[in-house]
């Protein structure tokens, strides 16, 4: 049973939390947190960071999101019928 992934609590680096428990833990830990306010990552609510711009450079979920987006865009571009106006050529 050691297949769980652990993450580090953003509010206390000494907390090692099973990832599936992280959202609940964060809510509790946030209440005891006395440091500078952390921002919540738009792409993964368990990411709480001081500097969002720095975080997004290394945020896996953000990168997945942008990759997906450009992938979808590529698909939809390809899916669009290209209509040539033959008379105009
Ligand atoms: Zn914690
Ligand atoms: Zn993130």
What's this model, at a glance?
This is CHHC U11-48K-type domain-containing protein. The protein is 43% helix and 11% strand. The chain has three helices and four strands, in the order ββαββαα.
Shape: elongated
Q: What is the chain-wise order of helices and strands?
A: EEHEEHH
Sheet having the most strands: 2 strands, antiparallel
Low-confidence stretches: none
Number of domains: 1
- Our measurement of the CA-to-CA distance between the termini, rounded to an integer number of angstroms, reads 67 Å
Give a list of the ligands.
Answer: zinc ion
The count of strands amounts to 4
Q: What do the pLDDT scores average to? A: 88
What radius of gyration results from the CA coordinates?
A: 21 Å
Instruction: Find the structural class using helix and strand composition.
Output: alpha+beta
Protein name: CHHC U11-48K-type domain-containing protein
InterPro entries: TRM13/UPF0224_CHHC_Znf_dom, Znf_C2H2_sf
Pfam family, one: zf-U11-48K
GO molecular function: zinc ion binding
């Amino acid at each position: 049973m050691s297949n769980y992934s652990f993450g580090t609590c953003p509010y206390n680096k000494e907390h090692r939390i099973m990832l599936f428990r992280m959202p609940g833990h964060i809510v509790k830990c946030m209440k005891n947190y006395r440091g500078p306010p952390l921002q919540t990552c738009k792409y993964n609510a368990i990411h709480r960071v001081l500097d969002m711009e720095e975080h997004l450079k290394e945020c896996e979920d953000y990168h997945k999101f942008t990759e997906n987006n450009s992938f979808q865009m590529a698909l939809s571009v390809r899916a669009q019928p290209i209509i040539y106006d033959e008379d105009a050529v």
